Amino acid sequence: METTSAKPSLFVETPTARRRPRWLRSDMAIAVLVISPSIFAVAVFIYSFIVWSFFISGTKWNSAIVDLTWVGLDNWLNMLTTDRFQTDVRNLVLYAAGFMSQCIILGFLLAVLIDQKIKGEALFRTIFIFPFAVSGIVTGVVWRWLMRPESGINLIFQSVGLDFLKSPWYTDADWGILAVSVAGAWQFSGYVMALYLAGLRGISMDIREAALIDGCNTFTLYRRVIIPLLTPVTFTAVVLTGMGSIRVFDLPAVIGTGAAFGTDALAFFMFSLTFTSQRYALGATIACVMMIFSALLVVPYLRSTRREAEQ
Asked: Which of 18, 245, 252, 283 makes an SS bond possible with 96, Cβ 3.0 to 4.6 Å?
């Protein structure tokens, strides 16, 4: 007996569907039609404005009057020799070092603590993740009061006899940006904790038990087994915290730029040039520099995820 098997189809072949062109009946065409509004919006409101920013950075538009006279790299050369820009790049390096290390180390330790199946785990998760839900402006206001040299944390140190721990915090012209990184890490460490906790919960208990049977103690287990398995999570945390370091704006805007721009940031400098001084070409130049810094983080991450998907 001859049998026939019908091929599975994702849609029912109705008479209306049969009258459609063949290309419109394909799954690829349907997918393109569905995502085309998003593609159009991204192309117009993101990539076209990126191209526009690079174009403006090469013009003479540094006043309220539009002047698109092409000057090439003059704005870039002028910006590189500006003292405030050089200070902001230094601040970016210090802030990124402090912010990224605090978020990754503290987030990992908190995740390890919660992964021990402690009592009240849900409560601790909520407490640790709650600062991430607080806006950067509120965080800046609170930590500006806490880090005032004459009050806040210093007052607590003085009252308990720990005067040697008192610090100028964000008022320090050389290292004040590290105090700002403390406020940023307080806000973002809970999110990194959630990333690491998801990664820890994804590691099979069989792997841990096998390592313990082979003689690994707790420290060796984390150093030789768990931390290497969490490398993709760490890579993601590095990219996210690095991007946060580049685009930080709210904390310096609230806390202030400090003495000699000790707590200034590139994003706040760009805002001041563009919307206060109306020097649009110079503001676009800083925006382009920030996009280049961001690309140095994002491009390797995208290439890594693409290689993982192809394997």
From this structure: 245
